[in-house]
Design goal:
This protein is α+β, with helices and mostly antiparallel strands. The chain is built from two helices and five strands; from the N terminus they run E-E-H-E-H-E-E. It is globular.
């Protein structure tokens, strides 16, 4: 089975099975992964699904649109490989994707 791994700020890992076509945020919400609040329900309007993509995977997560870039600019823990989980659509190519969660969401 294909999986995603979410790693909390304290190092706790959560491996979840993936369903192609759903967003990374939906996977986190469906599996109640702590640290993904998803307050706006995936509308790219709140920044509470901020994840830091493992650098080896960043290029496979797609392109940031303007709305996502603006939300990430106001995120206090923004990193070079930050994304909003609601904007990453899961494909088979993301099997094994590793995502770190910041200590705090917006």
């Amino acid at each position: 089975m294909a999986t995603l791994t979410f790693i909390e700020h304290d190092g706790t890992a959560h491996e979840v099975d993936i369903e192609v076509g759903k967003s990374v945020m939906q996977h986190a919400a469906d599996h109640m992964v702590p640290g993904i609040d998803a307050d706006c329900g995936g509308e790219c309007a709140c920044g509470t699904c901020h994840v830091i993509v493992d650098p080896a995977w960043f290029g496979k997560t797609g392109t940031l649109n303007e709305a996502e870039q603006q939300m990430l600019e106001i995120t206090p823990e923004k990193a070079a490989t930050s994304r909003l989980a609601c904007q990453i659509k899961v494909t088979e190519a993301l099997d094994g994707l590793v995502l770190r969660l910041p200590e705090f969401q917006m």
